[in-house]
Amino acid sequence: MKELDIDFVRKQFPVFNTDLGRKVGFLDNAGGSYVAGAVIDRLTDFYTNYKVQPYGANPISNRAGVAMDEGRSTMVALLNVPSDLLTLGASSTQNFNTLTIACTPLVKRGTEVIVSEQDHESNIGGWERLCQRQGATLKFWKVDPKTGELDLNDLEALLTPQTVILCVTQSSNIIGTLNPINDIAALARRTNTRVVVDGVSYAPHYWPNLDELDVDAYVFSTYKTYGTHQGVMVVREDFLEELEPQSHFFNVPYKNKRLDAAGPDHAAIAALAGLGDYFSTVYEHHFGAEAVPLHVKARKVADLMHQHEMKLCHYLLDHLRELPVRIFGRPTTEQREANIVFTSSTVSSKALADGLAQYDVAAKNGHFYAYRLLEAMGVEDLNDGVVRISLSHYNTREEVERCVVGLRELLSN
Ligand SMILES: Cc1ncc(COP(=O)(O)O)c(C=O)c1O
Q1: Cβ(205) to ligand 1 under 6 A?
Q2: Of the candidates 99, 94, 56, which has an alpha carbon nearest to the alpha carbon of residue 264?
Q3: Does domain 83-264 fall into CATH 3.40.640.10?
Q4: Atom of ligand 1 minimally distant from the CA of 172
């Protein structure tokens, strides 16, 4: 079995050429990852050479348009989805908000929307506001307060013929457990309920495989997957056709623009082409230069990334289990991604996160906008919240070891 060549990978990220980048063990990746050099190159090229209104006949404007098209077509290829169905927005929160408003014709008085308590607020708040405006019912799929996990039996009991939309995360940015999206969707299909999935926390660790997911809308953020600050939303065609377009009226005929208010960040879109470069470079280094589709490369590379992260995650959890902390989510690597969250009953989460900085480890504390999940799990001070260590494929064993040493000392004081 191949292993990720971590030295090669780190060479693809310019931050590791800086003193601070080498010094700090960056374990706050769920907040936003480092950016691959290939993406930065594309961004610099855009800003340096053709940062003008795109799609004009003059060669500078024309190049800007070509670069934007390349960014978009790269995302289409990386996800293996029809270009018409891909919306690029400023963030996932913005894409979710747009989607909720676009769902107005479906969410009427007498209908129901289900959201999960496990979700980030971006996949809850907009639905709550929509239900309030429309006089529809919002139902919460509650978590087990001890584990934070969702039970399919509870969902089955919530779904009714009136349920029009179900919103759920593929994996939580707190507990990190992977949810069985297709099993969830199979239940929702029985009541003809649309399924909206938040892939933000999942995508950096696994890369989305939309060929295998039975979902109506899927959302994630490229600033967490080594790219520029963009939100990606893929909406199934028959769902899109039921929605109220949120674009300028003259853009409505273009499906890919219907959920895009217009006025995008041209350079950030263009630079997404660098994500394709990154996955290709890492793929070729490990598997050779065979011509395979970009989404296949991304998935094979993501397998290596995941394997590497799980080794680090295993090490961290092994040591955390021996420390006086409450681990949120599974204490082992089973069915999990590498977000590791905990609290101590004696040291505040802020003191732990800030204390880790003295060991040159970057981590954060707080509720991470999963306010309702932490509330359900009994966290009393939501501002202090939990400590989150979130790993990426470019992290090293040494960085995680340093984190463990720091935590051991901070917790023994
Ligand atoms: C699980 C999850 N969903 C949604 C979001 C919102 O993404 P964005 O920052 O792109 O709006 C985040 C951001 O941290 C997240 O972790």
Answers
A1: no
A2: 94
A3: yes
A4: 1
